[in-house]
Amino acid sequence: MYRNFAIVPRIIFGRGSFNQLDEILAARRTSDGGMVFILDDVFQDRELRGRVPLHEGDRLLLVNVDDEPKTSYIDALVAEIKAGDSRVPAGIIGIGGGATLDIAKAVALLLTNPGSAADYQGWDLIKRPAVYKVGIPTLSGTGAEISRTTVLTGPEKKLGINSDYTLYDQIVLDPELLAGVPTDQWFYTGMDCYIHDVESLQGTYLNEFSKAYGEKSLELCRQVFLEEHPDRDDKLMMASYFGGMSIAYSQVGACHALSYGLSFVLGIHHGIGCCIAFNQLDEFYAEGVAEFRQMMAKHDIRLPQQVTAGLSDDQMEQMVTVALGLAPLWENCLGKNWRELMPRERARRLLSRM
Ligand SMILES: NC(=O)c1ccc[n+]([C@@H]2O[C@H](COP(=O)([O-])OP(=O)(O)OC[C@H]3O[C@@H](n4cnc5c(N)ncnc54)[C@H](O)[C@@H]3O)[C@@H](O)[C@H]2O)c1
Ligand SMILES: [Fe+2]
Known about the structure:
The chain is α/β, with parallel strands linked by helices. It has 2 domains: 10-178, Rossmann fold (3-Layer(aba) Sandwich), CATH 3.40.50; 183-352, Up-down Bundle (Dehydroquinate synthase-like, alpha domain). It is built from 14 helices and 9 strands. Helix 5 (183-201) packs antiparallel against helix 10. The radius of gyration is 20 Å and the shape is globular. The relative contact order is 0.11. The model has no long low-confidence stretch (mean pLDDT 96). The structure holds nicotinamide-adenine-dinucleotide and fe (ii) ion. Nicotinamide-adenine-dinucleotide (NAD) binds at residues 40, 42, 65, 68-69, 96-100, 102, 138-139, 142-144, 147, 149-151, 177-178, 180-181, 185, 189, 269-271.
């Protein structure tokens, strides 16, 4: 069976395209509720905040992403929006990195679907279309702008709300918005994309569709992280989009699976967690890891060392359980007999090196 997958129907790309946001939204200002802009609070005192095209009745919510998004945070934001105005908003516009893009997706879904965000963690549990939603990345690499998931940490699990309704209706890709990202964050999020490409291209699920997008994305990542180009932000923005398209029709692999373990037990954020894990995975992705180290050296990135060193036996076992729970990722990496190739002891040995 082949997956008949939906993608984001409308995309605007280019430097300064953010200036067209007001015009894009105008066509959607039909219902009587206003627009709700969800902006990463890193922009609280920056120029971008003043450029948000607010009309009367619209709202601007500043969100904090020091922790990766939790289902309880989504529930609180939805309650705040409903308390402020009983009408359903005309649209939700998320502006920020992967975490903010995920928050905005989840809020748009929960405004039309009853209950808690935690009720929908899984696959195709959402029953009703979301409020119209627009995603505007200010950090590139996760592919959250084009994915059909919003990754959330709930009371019991870290799992996405995966559904066709999760996809944005519109994305605005303006490379100018990447200016001002600190180098280490730019690198970690960019490496998320590089690792998507390597894991997709070396996976057993690979097909020409994923390969076409993955190869182009990898080429762009090399230009961004190993060469000098004045338009590197434009390149990284497209690399992120193409990397996301590549994994949409294949899968990620060992690095993502192990990084979920790190993230669940230690609260390590996605981009940096992927880098810590990837740096120990020569036995799976020798060439990719060697090139990744060249990229680290070029940008003078120093990864945290021995993050799992002080963990208890129970914590290590929990990490192994989380990592090995991601069966499709291991199957993509190692094939159908992955369970024989990746016994618990091997996964634990890999994690203990990180
Ligand atoms: N939905 C998906 O398909 C998907 C895929 C991968 C990762 N994710 C999620 O994405 C999140 C990671 O996203 P991320 O790596 O983009 O980082 P992020 O959104 O967590 O942001 C990282 C930091 O960068 C700051 N920041 C963002 N834009 C900035 C800018 N222009 N200038 C200065 N600072 C800026 C943020 O305030 C934050 O402090 C995780 O929560 C992860 O679970 C989602
Ligand atoms: Fe990722």
